[in-house]
Design a protein that fits this description.
Blueprint: H1 11-18, E1 23-27, H2 30-33, H3 35-43, E2 52-59, E3 66-72, H4 79-86, E4 91-93, H5 99-103, H6 112-119, E5 123-126, E6 134-141, E7 144-149, H7 150-157, E8 160-162
Parallel strand pairs: 3-5, 5-8
Antiparallel strand pairs: 1-7, 2-3, 2-4, 6-7
InterPro entries: Prolyl-tRNA_editing_YbaK/EbsC, YbaK/aa-tRNA-synt-asso_dom_sf, YbaK/aa-tRNA-synth-assoc-dom
EC number: 4.2.-.-
Pfam families: tRNA_edit
Length: 165
C-alpha cells in the first residue's frame, strides 16, 4: 500500500493550529487559471464570493502607514472609497516589487493571518462577506488557501469591516 505524501504546513497554518482554529486546506490557482479557478472552487462547494484576495495598501499619513484590505477575488478595489471610509487623504497600492520586504510574502501569497501576527498592520474586510459563515484566504503560499470560519479569522486578526463597494 502506497503512503500518502504528507504536505508540509505553511507558517500561517501553524498559526491557526496554535490558536486552535479549525480550517481546511484548499487550492485556488487564481494567478494562472483566473476565473477558471473560481469555477473549480464552486464545483468543490466553495462559493466564489467567499474566496478573498489580500491587498496591501500604503496610506499617506506616514512612512509606515500600511493597511490590508481583504475582498472577494472577483471584485475590484476602490481606493478612493477606502480612503474616505478610513478618513485618510488617500491610499495607494503598496509597491509590488517591495511587497516581500513590507509583508514577508510574495505577490499572490499575502494573507491577513501572517501579516496581522507578524506585522500588526490593521486588517479590513469587505462587509459583503458577512453573509458567508466560511471564507477562504491565502495560506501564505501561492495557490494554497485555507477555508475557515469568518468569525475565527476576524477575531484572530482583530479585523474590521469596511464598506468598499
Amino acid at each position: 500500500m502506497a503512503k500518502k505524501a504528507k504536505i508540509k504546513k505553511t507558517n500561517d497554518e501553524r498559526i491557526l493550529d496554535q490558536h486552535h482554529i479549525d480550517y481546511r486546506e484548499t487550492h485556488f490557482d487564481w494567478i494562472t487559471k483566473g476565473k477558471d479557478a473560481l469555477t473549480e472552487a464552486e464545483a468543490n462547494g466553495v462559493p466564489a464570493k467567499s474566496i478573498l484576495k489580500t491587498i496591501v495598501l500604503k496610506g499617506s499619513d506616514n512612512v509606515r502607514d500600511y493597511l490590508v484590505v481583504c475582498l472577494p477575488l472577483e471584485y475590484e478595489i476602490n481606493l478612493k472609497k477606502i480612503a474616505n471610509e478610513l478618513g485618510k487623504k488617500q491610499v495607494h497600492l503598496a509597491d509590488n516589487k517591495r511587497l516581500i520586504n513590507i509583508t514577508g510574502y510574495v505577490h499572490g501569497a499575502n494573507t491577513p493571518i501572517g501579516i496581522s501576527v507578524r506585522k500588526g498592520f490593521p486588517i479590513y474586510f469587505d462587509e459583503r462577506i458577512k453573509k458567508f459563515d466560511k471564507i477562504s484566504v491565502s495560506a501564505g503560499k501561492v495557490g494554497r488557501s485555507v477555508c475557515l470560519r469568518q468569525g475565527d479569522l476576524i477575531d484572530l486578526v482583530k479585523g474590521k469591516y469596511l464598506k468598499v463597494e
